[in-house]
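Reading group handout, session on sequence-to-structure problems. Before we discuss, look at one worked example. The prompt was deliberately terse, the way you'd type it at a terminal:

> structure ABC transporter ATP-binding protein

The input record follows.
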Amino acid sequence: MEPAAAQTSDEVVLSVRDLQTWFDTPAGTVRAVDGLSFDIRARRTLGIVGESGSGKSVTSLSVMRLLDPPGRIAGGEILFRGQDLATLSEAEMCRLRGQALCLVFQDPMTALNPVYRVGRQVSEAILAHTDISARAARKRVIELFRMVGIPDPERRVDEFPHNLSGGMRQRVTIAMAMANRPDLLILDEPTTALDVTIQAQILDLVKGLTDTTVLLITHDIGVVQEMCDEVIVMYGGRVMEHGPVRAVTGAPRHPYTAGLLASIPSAAQRGQRLNAIAGSVPSPLAMPPGCPFAPRCPRAMPVCETRPAAVEVAPGHRVACWLEEGAQA
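And the output record:
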């Protein structure tokens, strides 16, 4: 399928600058995302990886402007083709969601209405943004189902979500997201609830969307290695490391990135204890004043009580760690 508008490979589709997303609670303010910046260029895939609570999913909800109170965008810019999404009205965002911007959630059962046939739900996404007949929309849905690898699409369009397997439901949500040829597709843990065989099939499907710009949210750095051009490693709402996938995963410069890579199981470790990062993610209401990873870091120093700045260690490769020469608060 052709994208909605021709995209050149050097065009910046999404530019996030110093994004701060906070949740005001009775116990205090949670800085779920604290100073995140990145660019995604056309037809490229950027991965955001980290443990639960690192701010990955909040980033995707911030871009889509789907935060529920008490969540709020406290600062920064979210520039989509030069337009700041953080300043748009809800009506203006509604015109973009489902058309130019699409989000695929982790659990397809929460994204699909259980009482409507899946074909109807995808048709509604098309009809909301396109002036075509219901018959033409149904034909388009069948084409989409065939594109995402759903067998016998002419029959599947009339199925209910509970009649489909988890993998098939996720394919339906991807078909729905691709229905209007979005400029940016956001995938939030799209394979977490699936078995490994179906995971591989869904990832192969996403890799085949070569004309689509993708933001992939995941806790699995192995998936990032396979799928992405660039990667952001997040922890405690902040960026620990950001750069080309080969550079970041091939020669990690931040101890947290190294810990994530060391925790990937391998056949060579059969019968041995799995590697794990000691400790746990601190409470979001009690983040350390400096580097948030310092309490768990095997190389922590007294200076880590002060927040380090991101240092460029190679072209396009930045690390926020006091171990890098030139880091300064």
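Points for discussion. First: The longest strand covers residues 12-25. Second: DSSP finds eleven helices and twelve strands in the chain.
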